[in-house]
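Supplementary Text 2. Reproducibility record for the structural model of the 277-residue chain.

All settings were left at their defaults, and a single model was retained for analysis rather than an ensemble. We include the record here because the model underlies the residue-level annotations in Supplementary Table 4.
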Amino acid sequence: MPDPERLNVDGTSFPLVRVGNGVPVLFVHGAWADHRIWCGFWKPMSRKTKFMAITQRHFGLMEWADDKPFSRQVHTDDLIAVLAKLDEPVHLFGWSYAGGVLLRTAAIKPEQVLSLTIFEPSFECEDLSEPGPLLRAREDAWKRLEPAYHMAEGGNLRAAMHIGLEAVYNMKEGGFSDLHTDFQKVHLDNCHTMLPDLRAEPAKPLMSEEFNRIRCPVLVLYGENSLDQYKLMAQETSNSIENAKLTKVPGVSHGGPVQRPDLIAKAALDFIISQTH
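Retained model, structure tokens:
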């Protein structure tokens, strides 16, 4: 992947990769990652689009000012400011943690967003005060993930990242080592974000009026082998947005963008190009 430039937004410098010509597509990473997680996407995407990938505040290898907390609200505000700086509407692609950030951005600034493609959005998409399938699925997912956070709180962040990724990617024990070494490095370089993410102020659920303000075409992707939590959240998101398209990606789990970037890049590219004709 090409080296990032520095995009200065209101005094904050965000790493931004920008390569290719065509319709602008901005990729926003999920938790425990940074812009390098899209290294399997930039070549196919940049052949037909202007590929862009940004690192969100507090992620990655650079030193960030501590004037703003780690939170979805901060990341949403940042993305809105980044879009204003880019000074052109863009197609947005997000994964997991970024899902709620992108959805709320599209609701607040619909004129800046040409389309949304989200692989397994992770956010509060329904009221969890009452028992239901998503609540049970989240409880099951937390049982898998909780040991990783206990290990992180004990100070062993790198080992916690191994266990945490195996949990959320629905992998066998030791499966972290099966990932390409480039992706292992990106995740391990972001192990410092595990506890800030855990301790962050909970995201506010998106309300129906916010979903109704999303006017652009929306594609929601989910993995065939993902935990029920992610499948259900993908379905909830798709059902909440008029005319949203829901598509299953075969043979992958929540780690789909690192397991089969070719499949997901093609699905995203086909969808984005279809909006330009």
